[in-house]
Amino acid sequence: MAMMKHTTLAMAAVLGALMGSPQARAEYGDVVMNNHSEQNGINPVVFPHWFHRARYGCKVCHSDLGMELEAGANGINMMTIMDGQHCGACHNGEIAWQLEHCDLCHSGKSGLETQVHGSTSAQLNTTQGEEAR
Ligand code: HEC
Ligand code: HEC
Ligand code: HEC
C-alpha cells in the first residue's frame, strides 16, 4: 500500500512539472502583505511585484485598478478580491488562475510584516530551497 502511494505521488509530481503547474516563488522587490492574514489564521501574502511588472505596465495596476504605490496602503483583503478588485481583477480563472490556489498567494512565513522586501526568497517562502534547483 505504502509503495503504491509513493508511486502515485511521484507520478503526480511528474505530471505537475509537465503541465507547468504554478508554484510560489519569492524574489527581491516582493511585497509582503500581512495586515489581515495571520490574525485570521492564514500565512502572509507574498506578492511577486517583478513577476507582474514584467507582464504588465505600471498603469494597469497603479492607475486602471487604482492601487496606491505603497505596501499595505490599499486595504486589500479577501472581500475586495472576491469582489473583483485588486488581485481579484485578474485572479479570476480567466486572466490568471483563480482564488482556490490559496497557498500561491499566502506563501509567506509566519511573522513577516507588511513591507517591501529586499532580500532573498529563502527568508520568505515556506518552500525553502526551491531556488537552489
Ligand atoms: C490572488 C492572491 C490570493 C489568493 C489566491 C488567496 N488570497 Fe487570501 N488574501 C490575499 C491578500 C492580498 C490578502 C490581504 C493580505 C493582508 O494584508 O493580510 C488576503 C487575505 C486573506 C485573509 C485575511 C482575512 C480577510 O478576509 O481578508 C484570509 C483569511 C484569506 N486571505 C484566506 C484565503 C483563502 C482560504 C484562500 C483560498 C481559498 C485565499 N485566501 C486565496 C490574496 C489571496
Ligand atoms: C499586477 C499589478 C501591478 C503592476 C503591473 C505593478 N504594480 Fe506596483 N504594486 C502593486 C501592488 C499590489 C503593490 C502593493 C500595494 C499594497 O500593498 O497595497 C505595489 C506597490 C508598488 C510600489 C510601492 C512599494 C515599493 O516597491 O516601493 C511601487 C513604488 C510600485 N508598486 C511601482 C510600480 C511600478 C514602477 C510598476 C511598473 C514598472 C508597477 N509598480 C507595476 C501592483 C502592481
Ligand atoms: C493585471 C492582472 C493581475 C493582477 C492585478 C494580479 N495578478 Fe497575480 N498574476 C497575473 C498573471 C497573468 C499571472 C501568471 C498566471 C500564470 O502563470 O498562469 C500571475 C501570477 C501570480 C503569482 C504566481 C507568480 C509565479 O511565480 O508563478 C502570484 C503569487 C500572484 N500572481 C499573486 C498576486 C497577488 C497577491 C495579487 C494582488 C496583490 C495579484 N497577483 C494581482 C496577473 C495579475
Automatic annotation (TrEMBL):
SUPFAM superfamilies: Multiheme cytochromes. The keyword Transmembrane helix does not apply. Residues 1-26 form the signal peptide. Pfam families: Cytochrome_C7. Residues 45-107 form the Cytochrome c7-like domain. The keyword Signal applies. InterPro entries: Cyt_c7-like, Multihaem_cyt_sf, Nanowire_3heme. Keywords: Signal. This is Cytochrome c7-like domain-containing protein.
